[in-house]
Amino acid sequence: MNSFYTINPTNGEKIKEYNEFSLPYIDELITLADKTFKSWRDTTFMHRANLMKNVARILNERKEELARLMALEMGKPIMQGIAEAEKCAWVCDYYAENAEKFLADEHIETQYQKSYAAFIPLGVVFAIMPWNFPFWQVFRFAAPALMAGNTAILKHARNTMGCAVEIERIFKKAGFPDGAFTTLVIGSDMVTKVIGHPLVRAVTLTGSTPVGSKVAEKSGSKVKKTVLELGGSDPYVVLADANLEKAVETCVIARLINSGQSCIAAKRFIVVREVYNEFIHLFTEGMKSVKMGDPMDKDTLVGPQARKDLQETLHQQVMQSKEKGAKLLLGGEIPKGKGFFYPPTVLSDVHKGMAAYDEETFGPVAAIIPANSEQQAIDLANDNIYGLGAAIFTEDLEKGEWIARNRLDAGCCFVNDFVKSDPRLPFGGIKESGYGRELSVYGIKEFVNIKTVVVK
């Protein structure tokens, strides 16, 4: 039997050992999920909503405890962990209140006595989720999937297995039946076997693009619906007429949220020449002012990186970019002492061919890229394999909206604010950032059979 430990990234110490589930036990749990589905799909929306509101209440009541667990397992600053738990409660309440309306039959006028589209749950949905938002990533799939009448099984990241186990407990405490939501304690080597299980009807993944490609390939070979939310290297375009102080304040937060470990964190700052030097000065000062340290401290904005290998990879990207000509203005050194910390880091004069330009930097590293014109800034923003989020800063709101809507290649585009997910808005990417949508009415319709019903 394989086993693994969760590790505290603040000090590198072991937290808890977990034994991975065997194949026969995994099959037993998936079979139970399918059996539960056959009764769960016939429950009323009101019944499901009452249970989902119980989940929201538990999350709010225990938000500080859950935030401490996130801080312990992946180093999330505790105030951000509290906000994450609150956001999970919000998405539960949102779908409890709106699922019935979103999935109401849509009647279509034809020559028949009755014709309409019905939205019927698929069955067991398999979710493969990452460590960086260990509660939010799970709840934003689970709340709509369960409210639609599906059941859910989860393969979480091994370094946040305590969070994964706790999520299952929360659903059970809220009154959901056994098999409605199940956490599988497994490693990545078991994922393809679960995808291939005949009772698994659909797959959703949030993770890296290489992993997403493999999941899509396996799911496609079994003709199973997938939703993929993959990597991102979000560009933030700063035009000459932007309010620089407000833009910088927003950009610093956007780069450092979750200690920089977010798919939709700002990663590339593309600044027109007219304000390039001033932006660099203000931004570097802003990055320098934040507190890095113990994630349990309420004043900490930047905690440790979640794993040592992630810290090392980030540093290699910084060093490679520096060797190719980027100017290191701040940070760029692994601190001495315990833990997997990496300081807020600023690189300027970044260009194509550098890791900070071409790759996703998953940590508190900012790449500042000069642009000679607005058009070049847009071109540079789109010059990337990813297309998850993007932002533009300008005082001309009409122009900013037009560029965001018509010219930035991304699934989520914001004007004068940082990119964020919201239960009311569709969330997802294009290009190598994935496909499909989570959240809003579009998210709940990803894992249903859009069934045509005709009565003559």
Protein architecture, described:
This protein has 456 residues and is an alpha/beta fold. The protein folds into two domains: 3-230 and 431-455, Aldehyde Dehydrogenase, Chain A, domain 1; 234-415, Aldehyde Dehydrogenase, Chain A, domain 2. It has 15 helices and 18 strands. It has helices at 23-40, 45-61, 63-74, 78-102, 136-147, 161-173, 191-195, 209-221, 244-256, 273-288, 308-323, 355-358, 374-382, 397-406, 440-444, and strands at residues 3-7, 14-19, 106-107, 114-121, 124-128, 151-155, 181-184, 200-206, 225-229, 234-238, 266-272, 327-330, 345-348, 365-371, 389-393, 412-415, 434-435, 448-455. The strands form four sheets. A seven-stranded mixed sheet has the order 12-13-14-11-10-15-16, sandwiched between helices. Strand 8, helix 8 (209-221) and strand 9 (225-229) form a beta-alpha-beta unit. The longest helix is centred in the N-terminal third of the chain and has 25 residues, at 78-102. It is globular.
Shape: globular
The CATH class of the largest domain turns out to be Alpha Beta
Total number of β-strand segments?
A: 18
Average the pLDDT over all residues and give the rounded result: 98
CATH homologous superfamily assignment of the largest domain = Aldehyde Dehydrogenase, Chain A, domain 1
Major β-sheet, in short? 7 strands, mixed
Instruction: Enumerate the strands of the largest sheet in spatial order, edge to edge or round the barrel.
Output: 12-13-14-11-10-15-16
